[in-house]
Design goal:
- This is FAD-dependent thymidylate synthase.
- Pfam families: Thy1.
- Keywords: Methyltransferase, Transferase.
- Its EC number is 2.1.1.148.
- GO terms for molecular function: thymidylate synthase (FAD) activity.
- The protein is of the alpha+beta class.
- It folds into two domains: about 5-105 and about 180-230, Gyrase A, domain 2 (2-Layer Sandwich), CATH 3.30.1360; about 115-175, no CATH class.
- Helices cover about 40% and strands about 15% of the residues.
- The chain has helices at about 20-30, 40-55, 70-85, 135-165, 170, 190-200, 205-220, 225-230; strands at about 5, 10-20, 65-70, 95-100, 180-190.
- The chain has a five-stranded antiparallel sheet.
- Strand 1 and strand 2 (about 10-20) form a beta hairpin.
- The longest helix is centred in the middle third of the chain and has 27 residues, at about 135-165.
- The relative contact order is 0.20.
Length: about 240
């Protein structure tokens, strides 16, 4: 399946999917014992109606499965969409699944996200969260090098603990967590994916998760062009 690189070491891979825009149409038409064999203009109007009027259950019959590799700070923010998916807008969407790699079991070489000199951002002027403009190159250079030194120190202590026979699930405490890349599978309905995109493609979302959302959109758009055009209209 298709894969897109994100940040310096991360990626999004579309592992599998079930359905197309026609799946949404036929899930809705079954109420009248009807079925479409090819997507028509009438079917497009039906998808438009379903999205406009909030009839969302047909969008939950299409499923997408992704493999993701991202810094922990992105992963944990993403997780909120799994926790909340059974409740938002009263949908009762219980089709989400999440399986993540664990350093209780693996000791592969840790990989860390380290922003380059031009990627460090200032704090926002009028908000307690988010970020502002890029800082000066020299300041970015300073903090890039300090982060590299911090990561190297953590790696050294992690490897020393393993060498001393400390179990992996405790040795990982030495690893600088938020920038460390983790790998996971995310399986979700089309509606849940669209909800994630609508939230994380917004201009005020954290830039790093925006980058992943853009990759998700590019991978999903060819499969569900009509549905995404209606569910995430400002982004398609």
């Amino acid at each position: 399946m298709a894969m897109m690189k994100v940040l310096n070491e991360g990626y999004v891979r579309l592992v599998d999917h079930m359905g197309t825009d026609l799946t949404v149409v036929n899930a809705a038409r079954v109420s009248y014992a009807k079925e479409s064999l090819e997507l028509s203009d009438r079917d497009v109007r039906l998808i438009q109606f379903l999205a406009r009027e909030g009839h969302t259950s047909p969008f939950r019959h299409a499923i997408l499965q992704f493999e993701l590799y991202a810094p922990l700070m992105v992963c944990r923010q993403w997780w909120k969409y799994v926790v909340g998916s059974a409740h938002y807008e009263g949908t009762g969407d219980s089709l989400e699944a999440w399986n993540e790699s664990s350093r209780r079991y693996i000791t592969e070489e840790p990989v860390f996200y380290i922003p380059q000199q031009h990627e460090w951002r200032s704090k926002p002027e009028n908000s307690k969260q988010g970020s502002g403009d890029a800082v000066a190159w020299e300041l970015g250079e300073k903090h890039m090098r300090e982060l590299m030194e911090y990561v190297e120190l953590g790696l050294t202590k992690y490897e020393a603990a393993l060498a001393d026979g400390i179990c992996a699930e405790q040795a990982r405490l030495f690893l600088p967590a938020y920038g460390m890349y983790v790998r996971w599978y995310w399986t979700a309905s089309l509606q849940s994916v669209a909800h994630f995109l609508a939230q994380r493609l917004e201009h005020d979302a954290q830039k790093e998760i925006q980058d992943y959302a853009k990759a998700i959109l590019e991978l999903v758009k060819p499969i569900f062009p009509v549905s995404l055009d209606q569910l995430v209209p400002s982004q398609v």
